[in-house]
Design goal:
single chain, 2 helices, 11% helix, Lipocalin, mainly beta, 10 strands
Length: 177
């Protein structure tokens, strides 16, 4: 009984170290991500959504027209999906301090929060997602990594009630001015 209890405690302590990476771990990575600099002008993006099994169930292209005035940015996103459907999302993003952002969009529940260090941004929010005539509130955990002045990679985990629904992978490319 005692060995079983000790083994259980050791297992819980070991699993405690399996938490997610903190964005601050990227503080020394280059190039440094400045959202106002990167999301300024036109950005093209290509992405896929994979379900829990890894099967690609949705492919899309997104064109983002972005600009900033002071600490407030607007990202106007036009999505075109492989099945012929389209959608649009307009983000209003506010830089709160050197590392912290918040964002709002019509289909985002409440406020999205973001923290940036080095070349990385972690962006979390709840999205109202229409699926087969119903709307679900889905948790997004976005990680964006600036690769150079033109390319950014984005990986998102979608979940509901703590259960992973799937992953979203995007590649962004800034157009030359």
């Amino acid at each position: 009984m005692k060995k079983s209890l000790i083994a259980s405690i050791a297992c819980m302590i070991g699993l405690g170290g399996c938490g997610s990476t903190m964005v601050e771990a990227y503080r020394n990575e280059k190039p440094v991500l400045d959202l106002a600099q990167y999301f300024n002008g036109t950005i093209d993006g290509w992405g896929v959504f994979q379900d829990r099994s890894g099967k690609v169930v949705k492919r899309f292209y997104v064109k983002i027209d972005a600009g900033w005035q002071g600490n407030t940015g607007t990202l106007d996103e036009d999505f075109s999906y492989a099945d012929g459907s389209t959608s649009r999302r307009v983000w209003t993003i506010t830089k709160l301090d050197a590392h912290t952002y918040e964002g709002r969009a019509d289909d985002v529940v409440g406020v999205a929060t973001g923290t940036a260090y080095g070349n990385a941004l972690r962006w979390t929010y709840v999205l109202r997602l229409p699926v087969d005539g119903k709307v679900y509130d889905v948790d997004f955990d976005d990680w964006m990594y600036l690769m150079d002045d033109k390319v950014m990679l984005n990986r998102s985990v979608m979940s509901k009630f703590g259960f992973r629904l799937g992953d979203l992978t995007l590649s962004f490319a800034r157009r030359s001015p």
